[in-house]
Write a structure and sequence with these properties.
Elements (H helix, E strand, L loop, with lengths): L2 E6 L4 H11 L7 E8 L2 E8 L2 H10 L6 E7 L14 E3 L2 E9 L2 H10 L10 H12 L5 H9 L4 E9 L6 E6 L4 E4 L4 E4 L2 H4 L5 E4 L4 E5 L4 E5 L4 E2 L4 E2 L4 H5 L6 H7 L1 H9 L3 E2 L4 E2 L13 E6 L1 H18 L3 E5 H4 L10 E7 L5 H12 L3 E6 L5 H5 L2 E4 L12 H21 L4 H23 L2 H10 L4 E6 L4 H15 L2 E6 L16 E6 L5 H13 L3 E7 L11 E5 L7 H20 L17
Helix pairs in contact: 3-4, 4-5, 9-14, 9-15, 10-14, 10-17, 14-15, 14-19, 15-19, 16-19, 17-19
This protein binds fructose -6-phosphate (F6R).
Amino acid sequence: MCGIVGYIGPRQATPILVNGLRRLEYRGYDSAGVAVWEGGSARVVRCQGKLRGLIEKLEVEPAPGKVGIGHTRWATHGRPSDVNAHPHKVGRISVVHNGIIENHLALRHELEASGSKFSSETDTEIVAHLVSAEIEDAKDLTAAVQKALGKVIGAFAIVVMDEKNPDVLVAAKNASPLVIGLGEGENFVASDVTAILDETKEMVFIEEGEIVTITRDAVVITDLEGNPVTREAKTIRWTAAQAEKDGYRHYMAKEIHEQPRAVADTLAGRVDLEHDTVALDGNDIDVSNIKRIVMVACGTSYHSSLVGKFLIEQMSRIPVEVDMASEYRYRDPVVNDTDLVIAISQSGETADTMGAVQLAKERGAKVLAISNVLESSIPRLADYAFYTHAGPEIGVASTKAFTTQLVSLTLIAIHLGRQTGKLAPERARELLAEMVTLPNKMADLIEHGAQLQVIARRYGNSQGFLFMGRGNQYPIALEGALKLKEISYIHAEGYSAGEMKHGPIALIDENLPVVVLVPQGPLYEKTVSNLTEVRAREGKIIAIASSGDQEIGALADEVVMIPNTLPELQPILSVVPLQQLSYYVADHKGTDIDQPRNLAKSVTVE
Ligand code: F6R
């Protein structure tokens, strides 16, 4: 995710902005920039790559001045480059922005039709154009921002600077974090407490739909209609290290909690509920030529591919095969130009997935990459790219990347289903309407996670765990086992519940916790009967069941309820308690949760 910092006061802004951006570096970014006002104009200095590059540039082209805005960018629209880096300046207006403007295409077309010239590929530049168009007739910058935001749909935190009115910065928030730091005769604005914690501990947290007018001596908050809002400042007692994790003890915990936002961002601008369709970011995949889909990936991304197989086959009736990329590339696979290969990689850099993509391309297949990192190697090599908008994932154990991969695969499956005509428009509508509710359901689920902490303490000293599920819950069982073993070092196996009696049932005794994924749906009864087989052998059952299930309590030792949703979407919710379980077990054991032994975030070697 991108980072914002802004300053207005008696001191030189650039060192404060650069220090703030340095504090945000841990979040991951691909470019950085500042805009600083002096002597009637704002100087913008931007640079692709690390902050070091921006600092070197600023040595050559200094940006003196006492009011300014800065930004670290994590690309979502438009590749990482100097021109796509923020701030974006249009006329007298400079803007930094975090989040996603959902209606950016429509707004861009409108603005271009009325003569606006764009210099970047970003959605952010649209905000600069909109404010610029309003400013001449508006009573002040706040009124211009208010008017411009009336046209914008999406998630954003923005800070705007006007070179003709340098005594003020205007910020606004809708769904992306924004905080104001209070000083003596100076004020700060940032996306994260971390960015300004070196300067002040007095912070005012901005809420949804609020606009803030920041001068040297005052901070005025209103809602989007201009009604005043009063908010007490809070004194932050976090250390810088705690602040980096938004107060969570580990990045993994922070990233688990970020999932509702990450899912909403991945859906943003892609779901068309009016026409029951999905916009695939302009990827015009021709289904008439596809005879088969082959999915290749590693680790957690491989598990999302397994869920993808269920989704795509069910909705489009195109046959799907799933391969571990490390196996695929060395087994001389049958692949040709009637195959669509879907390669999934959070980092976009995994060597085995890259090798599989190269091989498939050499043999004539078209490749669609699903990745979380814009312009990383795998999407660059692929014919089509679809991005999860999870924001940077820092914890080694993948969480929000996984759930946003599932969301992306569901969108792709719906798209393919509509293209092949095998998915009825009514069902597509039902699925899409339900998907839009997932962020709230997920937030609710995560909030009730304390129960998992109790369960983790109760079973966290076990020698091993078994996870089982059927249908699209089977890959979630695999993912639950992977999460647990990688961060707690407890041996865990994921099994298809139907396979139990073919071997693993021998493991079951009173010392083995068995996590059973048993949400309501067509396979509920069958899974319950597997669960009773475990119970008959005295295994300890932790059931992940649908809210309102009256039967399951009598059959399981522990029951974790997940909100009701359509069966196709259940994996997106049912994996969350498994992430929390492994997190709390690891925490109970005191392992290094964010950097487990022997593991790297991105496996760029074989
Ligand atoms: C597990 C995990 C790994 C990755 C795997 C693939 O939590 O993070 O299993 O999923 O190394 O990485 P990407 O998706 O970057 O290709």
